[in-house]
Write a structure and sequence with these properties.
- The chain has about 400 residues and is an alpha/beta fold.
- Helix 1 packs parallel to helix 4 (about 105-115) and helix 4 runs antiparallel to helix 5.
- The protein starts with 8 loop residues before the first strand and ends with a helix.
- It is built from 15 helices and ten strands.
Length: about 400
């Protein structure tokens, strides 16, 4: 939403179907793109789907289709054109010149949403780094275009003064952000080391965006974590301690949601947050069991885990939102995923069983030993109580 106007920005969505992509997949992806636009504060007023053998070098969709979109934008009074693909800087520039409207690709839209939802200093640093890396090759003439096409979606985050300076200053700023985030990574690593030394296991809650990760963390730990029915409502990593039934202390961490075509800039910039997943004792993969694209969302999440080097970590699949399914549907899923845990984080259903399974999985890491302590070394007993969990 514009900061200086009340009405929502009107967006035309553009998708290109290539020979290897089905019509169903294209439609699903555009549905998700529309959700992203809504989350960013806009509304989708039309969709354009083109079939092509390959992307057009200059405009991705060709000059003829770009001209059609220009006319459509004038008729519908659209503010921006959003592509469900990544555009090169020159393609974006050429499209804006042809259509006379602001043009965003999927990556720019996701970065804009992240800019809105970053609240912690770490989150803001990570988003600013990703946006600067993304915008650096797009600087040519961008300041003029932005003043001509307006602000709003795709222009949030770093201020315009930062984006209109020369490339050298932006590169220096990128290096500064990387150094700051390196310090954050070191601090996180130190915290993890202390927890490990104290025998506190860490559990990362991961999953597709809007699968119910924050709701589960709230239910488990009674924490007041932001919960919204929007994509990427939670961006900042949140950690909470919990005492399991066996009296073991564990730390649960809620991380940023995954999504198909997650921008590589974000994966690189959010390395300090994603390290929590890679170093976790156990990963809880939260799955929206009610979503029609459940299996594709599972695949997308698994792809991200593989990309960050966490594919081989111990994992527990947790199927959430069972309150939206019939008993027959739940039973069907149980047969397909016999090792899965089925819950409703919102209603608290299945939480007791989930905690029991987590307890069992975490206990596998622990080794039970019997020690004989000399009578005169009572200080060791005190030390065990201080250091133990």
């Amino acid at each position: 939403m514009y900061l200086n106007r009340i009405e929502k920005e009107r967006a035309i969505l553009v998708g290109v179907r290539f020979p290897t992509t089905s019509a169903e997949t294209t439609e699903e992806s555009l549905n998700e793109l529309e959700q992203l636009v809504v989350t960013a504060g806009g509304e989708a007023v039309s969709r354009v789907v083109q079939e092509r053998e390959s992307p057009h070098r200059r405009t991705f969709i060709g000059s003829g289709k770009a001209g059609e979109i220009k006319k459509l934008a004038e008729i519908l009074e659209a503010d921006l054109i959003v592509f469900d693909h990544d555009l090169t800087p020159s393609q974006e520039h050429n499209l804006e010149d042809t259509i006379g409207r602001k043009v965003l690709d999927r990556t720019a839209l996701i970065l804009d949403i992240f800019a809105q939802h970053a609240h912690s200093s770490e989150g803001k640093l990570q988003v600013e780094l990703a946006q600067n890396i993304y915008r650096l090759p797009r600087l040519r003439g961008k300041g003029i275009e932005l003043s001509r096409l307006g602000g709003g979606i795709g222009t949030r985050g770093p201020g315009e003064t930062k984006l209109e300076v020369d490339r050298r200053r932006i590169r220096r700023h990128i290096q500064y952000l990387k150094k700051e985030l390196f310090r954050v990574r070191q601090n996180r690593a130190t915290q993890r080391k202390k927890r490990k030394k104290a025998g506190v296991s860490s559990i990362s809650i991961v999953g597709y965006t809007n699968a119910g990760k924050s709701t589960l963390l709230n239910t488990l730990t009674k924490a007041d974590v932001l919960v919204e029915g929007k994509l990427f409502a939670t961006l900042d990593s949140t950690s909470r301690r919990l005492l399991l039934p066996s009296k073991q202390t564990v730390v649960f961490s809620d991380t940023v949601g995954f999504i198909k075509k997650l921008p590589h800039q974000l994966i690189a910039s959010f390395r300090s947050t994603l390290d929590e997943i890679k170093e976790a004792s156990l990963i809880l993969h939260i799955i929206d069991a009610s979503h029609p694209q459940m299996e594709k969302q599972i695949e997308a999440a698994e792809n991200v885990l593989e990309e960050i080097g966490a594919a081989e970590k111990p994992r527990l699949n947790v199927f959430n939102k069972n309150d939206r399914l019939s008993e027959i549907e739940i039973e069907r899923l149980r047969k397909r995923f016999p090792d899965g845990i089925f819950i409703s984080a919102l209603l608290g259903q299945g939480i007791e069983k989930l905690l029991k399974v987590i307890d069992e999985r975490v206990s596998r890491e622990r080794v039970r030993v019997r020690l004989q302590i000399p009578f005169e070394r009572g200080d060791l007993i005190q030390k065990i109580h201080e250091e133990g969990s």
